[in-house]
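Workshop exercise sheet. Pairs work together: one partner reads the sequence aloud, the other fills in the structure field after running the prediction. Swap roles for the next sheet.
Pair: D.N. / O.F.
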Amino acid sequence: MIMGMTFAQKVLAKKSGNDFAEVGQIVTVRPDHLVTHDNTAAILSKIEKELDQYGIVNPNLPIIVLDHVIPAASEKNATGHKTIRAFVKKYGLKNFFDIGEGICHQIVYEKGFARPGRLILGSDSHTCSYGAVNAFSTGIDRTEAAALMLTGETWLKVPPTIKITLKRGLTPPVSAKDLVLQIIGDIETDGANYCAVEFHGDIHNLTMDGRFTIANMGVEMGAKIAVFPADKNTVKFLDETGVPSGEYETVWADPDASYLDEHVYDLGKIEPIIACPHTVDNIKKISAMEGLEINQCFIGTCTNGRLSDFREAARILKGKKVASNTRLLLLPASKSILLEAIKKGWIHTLIKAGGVLLPPGCGPCLGAHQGVLAPGEKCLSTSNRNFKGRMGCKEAEIYLASPATVAASAIHGKITDPREEM
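Structure field:
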């Protein structure tokens, strides 16, 4: 008797032209989109001769966003950007977003490229973010991306699935960031290696921004994908981004699907969490970390650079000042978020409090420029990784937390429970 299929099995079966996909099976698929960023130049260098001979397989396949080092911080960066712009022009690529538009994952999300049931691959590990809107999305390496540019197809292995059931709702200012850090702490950074992670239960209690944050960090537990079912919130979000309901087909697991493992979380019991150096699963409740002095606070990135994140930060910092012993960096995930946050007055509030505004992009998160740390410094960040050297200095320490925790801590210059600022 054939068992029901998980989300991953269903999508990969359909995209490979099969009625059924078995866990562990290798399937050949044709993704709907390939996402690349500044690394497009390195990808192109692998296939210069082939591109001249055969051209690109489909000008609608790539989504290219310049976001990692913007504006260019060196001649090398600038040359890479120049190469990419020339490539886009030569092949008439339609889905190109130059510097200042935002981070690739946010662009794919807010421009309607990510849709239920779609298969999206990207040369960035956080491509898993689009599971927030019921898409199968995952990262691949540059060589695979280069081959996709030429052929439009690649292979994937059907992953086993871990089921996570969420009950009730979070108690503000506890947020989805605290929840996903707790999950990663429990499962550990390799606990879901090459697995799909499905989220079930009281999903309606999570905003779309919250789902994006959780899906974005799926790879931090080793997951191939992290995915949510499509519900009324999903449909509303897609409507608002200009994607009609007739242009996508939702996919979800069968009731009798088989799972590798299952976990249940009562969201009402989740507390503010801090991920301590130098791994994301090294979590502690905020009560164990309160009072630790912080040199830099950072709100933004593809994980927590959305409008709701800046709204929460502005609520906490309104009428207050960033402590003299720290600095607060602000990095919206896209230009549209920046403009709306300006319109709402939240950016004004945050800058008046002492925040420093950076252009929409990746900036400090990868330590390439803007906000690089010095030896011995500590940064409290809303980003997704705290590896040694991640923000440009191996002798610095990165702590991960929610926007509310970072905003509250900026006021005092030390890790502070955001529940104290309600």
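Discussion prompt: Residues 8-265 form a domain with the Aconitase; domain 3 fold (CATH 3.30.499.10). What would you look at next?
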